Amino acid sequence: MGLIFAKLWSLFGSQEHKVIIVGLDNAGKTTILYQFLMNEVVHTSPTIGSNVEEIVVKNTHFLMWDIGGQESLRSSWNTYYSNTEFIILVVDSIDRERLSITKEELYRMLAHEDLRKAAVLIFANKQDMKGCMTAAEISAYLTLSSIKDHPWHIQSCCALTGEGLCQGLEWMTSRIGVAKRFSIPKAGILSSSLNTLHSVR
Ligand SMILES: Nc1nc2c(ncn2[C@@H]2O[C@H](COP(=O)(O)OP(=O)(O)OP(=O)(O)O)[C@@H](O)[C@H]2O)c(=O)[nH]1
Ligand SMILES: [Mg+2]
Question: Which UniProt keywords are listed (predicted)?
């Protein structure tokens, strides 16, 4: 009886899904978290440790951990990994010099045992900045198409205006729908392939 109730409970989307928001310092993680929560731009200072907020999207509850991205803090990101369903990786699209560091951090995370079931949403943030990299350029540099064991999606956005953020959340909620329905969704050019989505379930 208890098991049936638990299954029904999860089917109706009342459980909480753990999300970690990671990326280098100054990428815009905290700005994104509070855009999700309040629909406005807050004044931020570099995060020491983390911020955590519950975000509800169409009856789906996400517990989002925004983790400080400074170099000295990155070695402790792994203390947040257990039970994570989604990684949101925020990239500062103007910061070409440090994209290689983001790439290293991404692949280190994907290799971590505690994140083996996690789906990855990459936000190509700061699209309002002149000369910024496009989502397609970032996708190519990060060789996202080589990722076969995690569902992933890249979304361009601007945390200051909120543009692109809803689309990212929609992808996340659609992934939860996929897991529940056990069906294969359509994959876009900037998402992991059908094969990938199929093989990770
Ligand atoms: N132009 C522009 N600036 C942005 C955007 N998103 C965030 N910022 C700015 O970037 C700076 C850093 O933003 P934060 O959200 O504090 O960055 P963070 O990733 O949380 O940084 P850490 O906490 O140090 O890891 C702030 O001045 C933000 O206002 C954006 O889309 N466009
Ligand atoms: Mg922060």
Answer: GTP-binding, Lipoprotein, Magnesium, Metal-binding, Myristate, Nucleotide-binding
Tell me the pTM. 0.87
Q: Is the CB of 74 under 6 A from ligand 1?
A: no
Predicted confidence (pLDDT) per residue in 160-169, tens digit: 999 999 999 9
The residue type found at 43 is: H
* Other C-beta atoms lying within 10 Å of the C-beta of residue 74: 19
Complex ipTM: 0.99
Q: Which strands form 86-92's sheet, in the order they lie side by side?
A: 50-57, 60-67, 16-22, 86-92, 119-125, 152-156
Pick the ligand that lies closest to the CA of residue 42: 1
Q: Please list the active-site residues.
A: 70
Alpha carbon of 154 to those of 78, 110, 164: distances in Å?
A: 22, 15, 10
- Ligand 1 centroid to Cα of residue 94, in Å, is 12
Q: Ligand 1: does its nearest atom lie under 6 Å from the Cβ of 164?
A: no
